[in-house]
Design brief:
The strands form seven sheets. Strands 15, 18, 19, 21, 26, 27, 28 and 30 form an eight-stranded antiparallel sheet that branches. An eight-stranded antiparallel sheet has the order 16-17-20-29-22-23-24-25, with no helix packed on it. Strands 9, 10, 12, 13 and 14 form a five-stranded antiparallel sheet that branches. A hairpin with a 5-residue loop joins strand 22 (593-598) and strand 23 (604-608). With 718 residues, it is of the alpha+beta class. The chain is 28% helix and 23% strand. Helix 11 crosses helix 13.
Length: 718
């Protein structure tokens, strides 16, 4: 049987904006293409023994549940009652195993996947009842369901089979992980179930993440990646397979698809509201994203890997955004949330937040709140409000009969609720976006805080002067009217027990600052000195040699394999900027780069001398080669002569210059270099796309500035 009859009819989607079709970074380079179990890449988890049970729940969690339920303590007892009242948590449940599961019409087989998700809900519910009550009759029922499904041989249908493999894979593995400690589940039967998960679920999960059914990697929405990542991680723990576990962790951090955290939480607004990748599609899928990424973070946490805190709590930013989006502020009016246009390879061009399915309830919020608030002492006000509103959370069968009601295991009030933390942590994660005359601050709040204070100094380490008090919500402050200079900020919280310690200190530079200056006057060796004093030395690679330039020396690039490499992270904290250089182009070729800074074909900012339209283009993207923001020139790049090129970004206004004249503008550039993160592939003369040509010509006086130079200042560089 063919697992997916549709695959042969799919073609590779074309990248329509910034380079050649389907190309990936050159072999050996850092990439966001994702790291699979088969690559041999250094692991995240290493090889220490797994904790068992160690997926969504540890033994300590079960001990807490048992104690709280025995004491009839609220809200645990409320969660227990909703579990025991659910028909899936019944000794009368009869499993209905299938040889092959079908999800999505393939024109040949009937869909039967509801039988699987109902039986998984029953196995999980019965497993919980056993672990909390000690009644082995429920353990026997859970084992009977798992054993019955161990004979599953495949998952078919159309592309929706990938969703079945992901969602039900992670859920099934969780049920089995609970039951592995039951002495009456024989080692042989556990091994049969583990082998089935390896044989049936994992190959589909892995194949999807590395191939995406032969589509461009950002074609699929975030949840497709997320469910398959969750399944791989869960199967890895269940089967004691470190390579699987690491595959999921690495994809969460570095994957090219929309499920990786930097794409799923597409855009972080001030105050750390993280716009979800599906927010412009509908709220049913957005809330499902929280219900999938939360379990990934929890399963990793229980094995000693902190994905919750990765990239400055980026998942929490997404959760707070989705929660606020779907909460009523007053009457029938939902909260207002910020939104920036989202586009992808399919040109969905979502210009506004979707109100479709707004207010969707999924049992996923207790997990979020109890980690960030009651483990870490942070504030998560909107997630907490949602958790209180829907408490106690039910499970499969409590949210309707359709598949959406079974997309999460649920029962979070019972399983995730922790005693309140005694006191909150100090404010943390303070960041600054600096522009001339202005600094925009954002930070993570603290549990029990009533307000926040912003403090500023012109000296690192203080003393600080309080510039704003009584900040409540949003946790952001814009400090305006600043002279050009360097400023240092901290934040404190006011709590019932007094003022907290200060947050981390953040530095904000509001002056125009030369960050990199490669004069290329070195004349020998492989290093191009950075005369800015910032230490951003360039390295000549392959066919890059020294030559005479516009001003003294220059670097000569052969158009075949020569380029200059710059250090990682050189623009990681930059918002407004200027990049300028003298270039001498020997031969015209589409997509040859003057520069390209990125981490692969999904995250980059670049200037090409000639796009498919025949004109220079600057572009920046965090979502694949077809989905970024661009400035197109209205003038061609001359060949066979020295030309001065420059690009600036001032707030949302991007400007492109050739020989001091403005040749293109875009007033809606919401991206900035810092949103690319710490880029590791910063190249002069080379593209992130392996099939694009290298630059053939000379480059001289290459400069990067923090801050946008004016037209007069650009002219002065010439």
């Amino acid at each position: 049987m063919s697992r997916r009859s549709f695959i042969s009819s799919l073609g590779v989607l074309l990248l329509a904006g910034y380079g050649e079709v389907g190309a990936a970074p050159a072999s050996g380079s850092a990439s966001t293409a994702g790291i699979s179990a088969a690559t041999g890449t250094a692991t995240t988890f290493a090889s220490k023994a797994f904790v068992h049970p160690g997926l969504l729940h540890t033994q300590a969690d079960f001990d807490r549940m048992r104690e709280k339920v025995a004491a009839k303590a609220s809200p645990w007892i409320d969660g227990w009652n909703i579990l025991t009242e659910n028909g899936h948590a019944s000794l009368n449940w009869i499993p209905r195993p299938q040889e092959v599961i079908y999800r999505g019409g393939d024109g040949e087989h009937s869909q039967n996947f509801p039988r699987l998700y109902n039986d998984i809900a029953a196995a999980y519910a019965c497993a919980l009842r056993w672990k909390i009550s000690g009644d082995t009759a429920y353990a026997d029922k859970a084992v009977a369901i798992l054993n019955a499904w161990s004979a599953l041989t495949g998952i078919g249908g159309n592309s929706n089979g990938d969703l079945a493999a992901g969602i039900y894979g992670y859920e099934f593995a969780n049920a089995a992980e609970i039951m592995r400690s039951y002495s009456a589940w024989s080692a042989a039967d556990l091994a049969n179930f583990q082998n089935m998960m390896r044989r049936v679920f994992y190959p589909i999960n892995h194949d999807f993440l590395i191939r995406h059914n032969n589509t461009e990697v950002t074609h699929y929405w975030a949840n497709w990646d997320l469910c398959n990542m969750a399944s791989i991680m869960a199967i890895g723990v269940l089967c004691d397979d470190h390579a699987m576990f690491n595959e999921a962790v690495d994809y969460f951090k570095h994957g090219a698809g929309n499920g990786a955290v930097s794409q799923a939480v597409y855009y972080v607004h001030p105050g750390y509201l993280g716009q979800w990748q599906e927010a412009g599609r509908d709220q049913g899928h957005s809330t499902m994203g929280i219900a999938l990424m939360g379990p990934i973070c929890e399963m990793a946490w229980n094995q000693g890997v902190d994905l919750y805190g990765y990239d400055n709590n980026r998942f929490l930013a997404g959760a707070e955004y989705v929660a606020k989006t779907n909460l009523i502020e007053s009457g029938n009016t939902f909260y207002t949330v910020p939104y920036v246009t989202y586009n992808n390879v399919d040109r969905v061009n979502q210009t506004a937040l979707s109100t479709a399915a707004r207010g969707t309830v999924r049992p996923c919020w207790a997990l979020v709140v109890n980690h960030y608030v009651n483990r870490k002492g942070l504030a998560a006000p909107y997630s907490a409000q949602f958790a209180r509103q829907i408490q106690p959370e039910g499970g499969g069968g409590n949210y309707g009969p359709n598949s959406g009601g079974y997309d999460q295991l649920g029962y979070g009030t019972l399983t995730c609720t922790r005693d309140p933390i005694a006191r909150g942590a100090a404010p943390s994660g303070l960041t600054a976006i600096a522009r001339p005359g202005q600094v925009v601050l954002s930070w993570w709040g603290t549990a029990y805080a009533t307000s926040y204070n912003v403090k500023r100094s012109t000296t690192a380490g203080g003393p600080y002067r309080t510039v704003k008090t009584d900040i409540t919500d949003l946790l952001s402050y814009t400090d305006n009217g600043l002279a050009a200079g360097t400023y240092y900020y901290v934040v404190t919280a006011m709590t019932p027990s007094g003022e907290t310690a200060v947050s981390n200190q953040v530095t904000a530079i509001t002056a125009v600052q030369l960050l990199t200056h490669l004069a290329f006057d070195d004349g020998r060796g492989a290093k191009a000195a950075d005369t800015s004093g910032q230490g951003h030395t360039g390295t000549l690679v392959n066919g890059a040699t020294w030559a005479s330039g516009k001003k003294g020396g220059a670097v000569s690039l052969n158009g075949g394999n020569g380029y200059v490499s710059l250090p990682a992270g050189i623009m990681a904290d930059v918002s407004d900027f200027t990049i300028a250089a003298w270039v001498y182009w020997n031969a015209s070729s589409n997509w040859a780069r003057v520069f390209d800074f990125g981490t692969g074909t999904g995250h980059f900012m670049m200037l090409t001398a000639r796009s498919n339209g025949g004109f220079p283009r600057f572009a920046m993207t965090v979502n694949g080669g077809s989905s970024g923001q661009a400035i197109d020139s209205n003038a061609v790049m001359p060949i066979g002569q020295w030309v001065h090129v420059a690009v600036t970004l001032s707030d949302n206004l991007g400007t492109l210059y050739i020989n001091g004249s403005v040749v293109g503008k875009n007033p809606e550039m919401v991206l900035a270099p810092f949103r690319l993160g710490s880029t590791g592939q910063n190249w002069i003369g080379r593209s992130q796309f392996a099939n694009d040509p290298y630059f053939n010509g000379l480059v001289d006086d290459f400069r990067i500035y923090r801050g946008a130079l004016s037209a007069m200042e650009i002219a002065a560089l010439m």
